[in-house]
Amino acid sequence: MGTVRQGQGVSPSVARSRQRTARPVDCRLQLILIGDRGVGKTSLLERFTGGAFTENCKSTVGVDFKIRTIDVGDKKIRLQIWDTAGQERFNSITSAYYRNAKGILIVYDLTKRETFEELGKWMKMVDKYASEDADLLLVGNKLDREMEREVRRDEGEKFARQYCGMRFCESSAKDNSNVDDLFHRLVEDVVRKVSVLSLLLLLSLCVLCFTVNCLSFSLG
Asked: What is the pTM (predicted TM-score) of this model?
């Protein structure tokens, strides 16, 4: 019996029908990963979008991005996730990608205290370039190397609380600990905020229409 390969045995009419019935995307969001070189930003993104981990992952030069579509509640969300270089010489390039990001993941290596101590620098970049309504998530990465830990969990939690109570999570791209969860939590926060803002805008428009109608009625 022959092997059926992808794309074989399906008529063009059936293929077109499947395309028509495919569930449309409800929302498109941009996320961005920032943090020092070598903290595992690229590995987290690779794991989330492809399920694979590369031991000797090359450092990102400038910026790169990947796309993944996920379900949040009853909504289908298409994510464009930007991976930025951690070296200071690329800041002039990467800063442009902050502005359109609805969610920002600030990553440090919990086995290297210096990457944690540099978080203040990255928060200044967020304050300077990111949108005020962007949701933030602090990520302590490389949880699989617990015996080499240099940054306690409570230190990460304390830092996160100092910045408007942003979310905090520890993860491991290597063993896939909390990777899906941290991205989903951030996207859920973004979607919730977008939904609230949309509702407030709708209510404002309703009030405006009601006011205009009342004025028209009294003048008439």
From this structure: 0.76
